[in-house]
Amino acid sequence: MSSRVIVEKFESECLRENPLKDPYQRELPVYLPEGYGASKQRYPVVYLLAGFTGWGARMLNREAFAESMDQRLDRLIASGKLSPAIVVFPDCFTRYGGSQYLNSSATGLYETHLIEEVVPFIDKRYRTKASAKQRAVAGKSSGGYGAVVLGMRHPQVFGVLACHSGDMGFEYCYQPDFPGAMVELDRYGGVAGFLKQFFNKPKRSAQEFAALNVLAMAACYSPDPRVQPHGFDFPFDARSAALKPKVWARWLGWDPVRMVDHHRDALKQLTLYVDCGVYDEYRLYAGARMFSEKLKHLGIAHTYEEFKDDHRSIQYRFDRSLSWMAKVFQSGA
Questions:
Q1: Alpha carbon distance 64, 228 (integer Å)
Q2: What distance lies between CA 255 and its chain's CA centroid?
């Protein structure tokens, strides 16, 4: 029996009352390897997290001259580079483009959704090896960020994590976009006006997407119900782009580079893989290097790699992390 993808229709109680009124019913694709239906075998599980403006099912789209993720999994398993595994593709998309896989009063309870709803559902419904050592979380960009943060915060759930070009080193990857975001927000009279034109335009500029990214990150990292009507604060002044130290400090509290010190015990329980391209447009190589150096300083074992590419179209790096995971699963480490 060949591999197949089952698309579960998942109804989330955690997301039912989310402040953006985003759907609480989500598609949850689940990849089952060849032979799953003909055996009673249990399998390790990989949760693949999409990047900003992405969602799980999108990773399965067919594209010209490229593999969809299920095709990639079929090839890796057939070649012996990946042991058969169940792979889950969560949907944590929001109206702003993404949740960073965190709980926020401005977007919804996406961390709780994954940890308390999706993982138990998969373990109950499918023949998983339901232990942290046989459960991985991985992703690229915002998905890589989610993998690192969820692993640090929930080592009892995810024991293996892989991060490709994940958001970290916030002063390098986010702060350079603050002045441009200020200009875009000012141009349209604030958050509401910016979002209205963004959603209504047939085509958006790179600067508008950069501003949306800053807005979305503010909703995740610095939610504040007192700031109405959108419920979050920006880490910079709306007129001068000068940093607001208290709000910026909240952002930095979610930077994986800074989180290492507070989660060192959890990190020592994890098996970690981190990589980044040395030509990354968002300068994420700086954060990746800082993250790796901090882990080394604390004596935390991990695999760190760099590659000669930028941030885009690097799905081929999943070949590396998935093959690495196969060895981790087989060793039981």
A1: 44
A2: 13
Cα 259 vs. chain centroid, distance in angstroms?
16
pLDDT (tens place) for every residue of the chain, 333 residues total: 699 999 999 999 999 999 999 999 999 999 999 999 888 999 999 999 999 999 999 999 988 888 999 999 999 999 999 999 999 999 999 999 999 999 999 999 999 999 999 999 999 999 999 999 999 999 999 999 999 999 999 999 999 999 999 999 999 999 999 999 999 999 999 999 999 999 999 999 999 999 999 999 999 999 999 999 999 999 999 999 999 999 999 999 999 999 999 999 999 999 999 999 999 999 999 999 999 999 999 999 999 999 999 999 999 999 999 999 999 999 875
Domain positions in the chain: 4-169+256-331, 172-252
Are 254 and 169 contacting, i.e. CB atoms less than 8 angstroms apart?
Answer: no
Pick the CATH number of 4-169+256-331 from 3.10.180.10, 3.40.50.1820, 3.40.50.2000, 3.80.10.10: 3.40.50.1820
Distance of CA 104 to the CA centre of its chain: 15
Quick one: how far is CA 249 from the chain centroid? 21
